[in-house]
Each structure stands twice: as C-alpha cells, then as structure tokens.
Amino acid sequence: MSHLGMALRRLCALSVALLWGCLASTSHRKAVAPPQDLQITDPGLLGSLDVEWKPPPNVQTVSDCTVRYKFEYRNTGDRDWKVIFTRKLKFRVGFDLSRTAEVKVQTLLEGQCTNDMEVQSDWIYATFQVPLQGKLESEVQNFHCIYHDWEYLKCTWQPGLLAPRGVHYGLYYWYEGLDRAAQCDDYIQDHGINIGCMLQNLSQAEYKDLSICVNGSAAATLLRPLYVTLRLHNLAKPSPPKHLVVSMSASEELHVAWSPPGGETPPQCLEYEVQLTEDARGTKAAWASVSTQMETALTISRANQSRISCVRVRGRTNIFCADQGFWSEWTQECFSGMEPKVTSISYTASTQPVCDQALIAATGICGGPALEGGACFSYTLNLVRHSHSYSFASPVRLAGKPQNINASALAPFPAAQGQL
Ligand SMILES: *[C@@H]1O[C@H](CO)[C@@H](O)[C@H](O)[C@H]1NC(C)=O
Ligand SMILES: *[C@@H]1O[C@H](CO)[C@@H](O)[C@H](O)[C@H]1NC(C)=O
Ligand SMILES: *[C@@H]1O[C@H](CO)[C@@H](O)[C@H](O)[C@H]1NC(C)=O
Ligand SMILES: *[C@@H]1O[C@H](CO)[C@@H](O)[C@H](O)[C@H]1NC(C)=O
Description:
Layout: H1 3-14, H2 16-27, E1 36-41, E2 48-54, E3 65-75, E4 82-86, E5 90-94, E6 101-111, E7 119-120, E8 124-128, E9 141-148, E10 152-158, E11 168-174, E12 182-183, E13 187-190, E14 193-200, E15 210-217, E16 226-230, E17 236-237, E18 242-248, E19 253-259, E20 270-277, E21 288-293, E22 297-301, E23 308-317, E24 331-336, E25 344-353, H3 357-363, E26 377-385, E27 388-391, E28 397-398
Parallel strand pairs: 9-17
Antiparallel strand pairs: 1-2, 2-5, 3-4, 3-6, 6-7, 6-8, 9-10, 10-14, 11-12, 11-15, 13-14, 15-16, 18-19, 19-22, 20-21, 20-23, 23-24, 25-26, 26-27, 26-28
The chain binds 2-acetamido-2-deoxy-beta-D-glucopyranose (4 copies).
C-alpha cells in the first residue's frame, strides 16, 4: 500500500465526513455485496417453503461490523411484503402454493467499518411455483371448513366443473409438528365421490397455520389441486348454550341464565347473543337483540307480561380468542308469563345460610330434625314446568330441608308466595 493510501486511510478514520468520502471514493455507493445462491425448495408440506442463501463473498474479512439480512416474501398479487430481519441463512415460511412465491434478500452491514451507519446491498430475488397441472376449472369448488366445538374439523367441497367421471379426490394436511403431510382418513362421500373430510385430534394445530391440499385424479385427466391455509381458532363453531333457564320476578323482570356449551370450547373464549320476542302466539316471532356479552346471565325488564315470550341465546368465539368465528345454533325457551303450569316443585338452597327468627317462628317448623347445626337456610321455590323453571323474587324461607310440600297448596300462582 502506498504512503499516500495509508495517509488517506488515517484521515478517513478521523472524521465521519471523510469516512463517507473514503467509502464513496473506493466503492462508489455500494459498500457490501448481496447474498449469494438464493434458493427456494418445497419440502412437500403443502404451503411451507424452505428459503436459503449464502453470505456475500469476502464478508468474513469484515471483523468489526455485523452482517444481517433483510428477508422479504409474498405471493404474487399480494400488495405487501412480509419482512424478517435476521442473521440466519435459512427460513421456512408459509405461502399459498396456488400462486407464485416471491422472495428477496439483501445484506445489511453495520458497525465500525461503516462508522455505525447501516449499509445495504442490492437485492437478490427468487420465485417458486409448484407445477400447476390441469385446468383451473377442474379445481374443487365451494371449499368450506368448520371447527366444531374445538373438537373436529369438518371440510366440504363440490367437484370441479370439469371433473370427469370416476374422479377421486384426496385431502392432505400439515401443521408444524407433523413430520410430513397426512391424508384424511375419514371422508364424507356422495355417490362414491369424496366431497368432504372429518379431521379429529387437531388441538396441536390450534393457533397455527394448517395447510390443506385437495387434489384429485381421474383416469386420463390431470386435475388442478386446491391449496388453502386455515387457522382453526377462526373457524370455530360452538354447540348451542346449555341449560337455559328463564325465571321471572314479581318486579316484571326476566332473569335469563345458561351454561356454556359442552365440548372442548374454552368457556372463556365465548360471547353470547341474547334475543327476546314478545309476540302473540302463532304469528311469526320478531326477535329483538337485547344483549351481546360474555357473562352467562342477564336480567331483562319485560315490556308486556300478557304475551307469550321467548328467549333465545347463541354463542361464538369472542375477540380475545379469535378474529372471527361462527355463531352456534340458538337455544330457545318459550313461556307464558301469566300462567305457568306447575308440574313439579324443586328447591334450591342459597349458598349463604339465612337465619330469620321471626319468619322461622311464624312458620313454626324451625328446630325440626332436618335442621343442620342450628343454621337456617334460605330456599328459592322453583315451579318447574317441563324443563322450564320459574322462581319467586322473595324466596320462601324454611328451616332445614323442606319436606312434603303439597303442590296443590301453591295454586293459584303467584299467591303461594311466602305462604309456607
Ligand atoms: C393425536 O395427535 C397426537 C399428535 O398430535 C398423537 O400423538 C396422538 O396419538 C393422537 N391421538 C389420537 C387418538 O389419534
Ligand atoms: C395429492 O397431494 C399429495 C400430497 O402432496 C400427494 O402425495 C399426492 O400424490 C397427490 N395426488 C395427486 C393425484 O396429485
Ligand atoms: C300488551 O298486550 C296487550 C294485548 O295483548 C296490548 O293491548 C297492549 O298494548 C300491550 N302493551 C304493550 C306495552 O305492548
Ligand atoms: C294435598 O292437599 C290436598 C288438599 O289441600 C289434599 O287433598 C291432598 O291429599 C294432598 N296431597 C298430599 C300428597 O298430601
């Protein structure tokens, strides 16, 4: 190296401005080369592709700088690139395999060698497309999936428009954790043609990308495969809420309570919609939505007690667990507010013991053998018509466990209130 060169180097080290001049004069804008050998390979996982590259040449000689990469990828037709900053040289990322996969990567150099300024290389690009066999019209149509009760996934489709006779469709799936793509083993058939699939035991696939391919074969014709990527939690449909109980208080309020549906649906992942109709018997009900909430109970004031009323409730996944979901079917209870037909009586002990000596004295049955530990309990009297339950606003208070209550003594309703 010449003396002039060494002197110039020292000068460059002295000031930012001179360093920039130095870089500009020696490499003219680009101080670092792009990565090399960018490659995309398909591991056969129905959506995930492996992307790898090699470092730029001579990058090992840069000891006082860090080398990173800016890796971007998308499907052709997407507006935005997904961006990853990394020091790794290999990534597995998800694509829609029915479209071309595009990737690009550039080198980022930063540290003393660049005076702590980030220097970017040019981009290198690569694309990938699975062989698109068959005509587009031969692809299956109306592909839908629902994740029932977080227990099983049911997917259905219709044969493609150009599906030949004797076509055989297959559904394959993969999610992170499976060694390789697996085939459906429980098909739904119509006239011997597979038109759907049931997949069980997918809890390991929740909150991940689930890649699905529906392809087909027919004697001499090539069929276009369908590729989709699902997220199970956004496809969940719970069963209808259970144990809907509507009770009415003397203050003309309706108390509505229900239980979360069964199955594997996480109860904390649900929200409910409650609707009410106060329609005359026989005409088409006009439902009014009264609440959408996460709680499993609600109090509604009634506009008109004299009419037949129905309450219905349905559930779906709330925003804390998913971006979207399907509503369950409704659970419905109808009742006549004025004339509940009493067919049985049941009692519910309240959780808090109540001692009301005046009342106990009045009833004269405190201290019987059923009294437990001297405590007095409050009972809510429920008049049960079929599965419908009506309870009084003021509980009838008894000491101990009520026994031998005569149903006919309660008629006419609601005069029985407080009579016992
Ligand atoms: C459910 O899937 C797991 C892997 O995710 C597997 O180990 C287990 O055997 C499966 N259970 C059934 C009943 O298929
Ligand atoms: C359908 O896709 C699976 C999984 O990629 C593959 O193993 C199978 O050979 C394909 N079948 C047809 C008919 O293309
Ligand atoms: C309640 O119903 C009766 C007859 O069924 C009707 O005459 C009355 O207007 C209703 N009241 C309200 C507030 O809807
Ligand atoms: C209930 O009371 C009615 C009259 O109040 C009586 O005729 C009937 O025998 C009673 N039934 C029972 C089970 O005690």
